[in-house]
Amino acid sequence: xxxxxxxxxxxxxxxxxxxxxxxxxxxxxxxxxxxxxxxxxxxxxxxxxxxxxxxxxxxxxxxxxxxxxxxxxxxxxxxxxxxxxxxxxxxxxxxxxxxxxxxxxxxxxxxxxxxxxxxxxxxxxxxxxxxxxxxxxxxxxxxxxxxxxxxxxxxxxxxxxxxxxxxxxxxxxxxxxxxxxxxxxxxxxxxxxxxxxxxxxxxxxxxxxxxxxxxxxxxxxxxxxxxxxxxxxxxxxxxxxxxxxxxxxxxxxxxxxxxxxxxxxxxxxxxxxxxxxxxxxxxxxxxxxxxxxxxxxxxxxxxxxxxxxxxxxxxxxxxxxxxxxxxxxxxxxxxxxxxxxxxxxxxxxxxxxxxxxxxxxxxxxxxxxxxxxxxxxxxxxxxxxxxxxxxxxxxxxxxxxxxxxxxxxxxxxxxxxxxxxxxxxxxxxxxxxxxxxxxxxxxxxxxxxxxxxxxxxxxxxxxxxxxxxxxxxxxxxxxxxxxxxxxxxxxxxxxxxxx
Length: 499
Ligand SMILES: [Ca+2]
Ligand SMILES: [Ca+2]
Fold this sequence. Notes:
Elements: H1 3-11, H2 31-34, E1 76-78, H3 96-114, H4 128-134, H5 144-153, H6 159-162, H7 177-183, E2 186-195, H8 199-211, E3 226-233, E4 239-241, E5 252-254, E6 260-276, E7 304-310, E8 322-326, E9 340-348, E10 353-361, E11 367-374, E12 384-386, E13 416-421, H9 423-429, E14 437-445, E15 453-463, E16 469-474, E17 481-482, E18 487-493
Parallel strand pairs: 5-8
Antiparallel strand pairs: 1-6, 2-9, 3-6, 4-5, 6-7, 7-8, 10-13, 10-15, 11-12, 11-14, 14-18, 15-16, 15-17
Bound molecules: calcium ion (2 copies).
One calcium ion (CA) binds next to loops.
């Protein structure tokens, strides 16, 4: 293993920390349709429990909801050749999970949705925005779902606003309302991890890569992608070059996951049914010989058919940053993470009401923020309230959070200006006929924490239904310091969207 590989595999080691709960498919029912409640721990936030439906807000059909017709599938699909797919990245630090799930897959999906190309930072999305929400402000690995949940809860800004696909410092949070406001527009509506053990599941996955199992939609078929979690130790043992005369001769292929090491987030961009390799060395490439000697022929025995992987180790690695992985390579009882494919549906969203805050805090994970609203401007208590995840230590993610560091980042005591979407909170209030209401904002710290901070500015901004800025109502803060005592702000607000 060269030093580069060693570095990367060491850095993506979150894999080993998360509980590896194994899926338990019911033998009598197709796993595609029945596996939803039994996904392993690395595929969803631990706080949400195993019945959390990660696809529930998506508009497209869930896995198993459409018929898979393999007759229409071409023998090869490579979505990385599409203009919606960004150039191959070269990651720094352990951000592989976010390079795959956000910088590659979310970027691709958002460009497909918007009808744009991922050719500038204005249409690419950063790996580090979501990474810095969950990496404890350290060089720590992450899961694909972390990025997709960040996009569900607060969105992801473009790389242009953010300052690039990656930053040169770990743990930095953006300072600038416009960055947080832009993030609100680019969201994930649902995601789904599925196991790959059977030919039925493989066909469903190939069809997702080809046209998402929605062949009639608009006539034009733009397929989806998958996040994968490979094991990267001793890769030389499983990497082969397709021999002269073979389909795709000269290209590199993984016959299976590395025999040791930790997880590494990568993107699956397509497949090629013709690519094959004589794994058992019998001189033939077969899909009907029991290679692993378990007495039956299953997908695990296949020598022909491979996924196309894009890795974030730069375009000089392997073949322009790409490599094949035999379909059968994903079926490995010693690396259960490698058996799962993660897909995502993205959405555009326009906030109507937001909070613009400028605040400092010595420990952003121990910060506790509660926002309440009442439709009566004389109200003495909120009718509806919520505690935004990012400003309450990301309870969603359990132990993964943004780190016990100042709100701007490690060693940076400056305040940041941020934005928080209030649209859903306001909708829960119901019809508001006069556009008036009352805001209740409290800032404090977690029990037992020594954190302190200060609210410096506060304003409510409203937008029209196309996202156009309408007005800002400044809320007078006064002495906004908090820490040992809680800071509370109550103020009448005007100009709320009349619903
Ligand atoms: Ca063979
Ligand atoms: Ca077998």
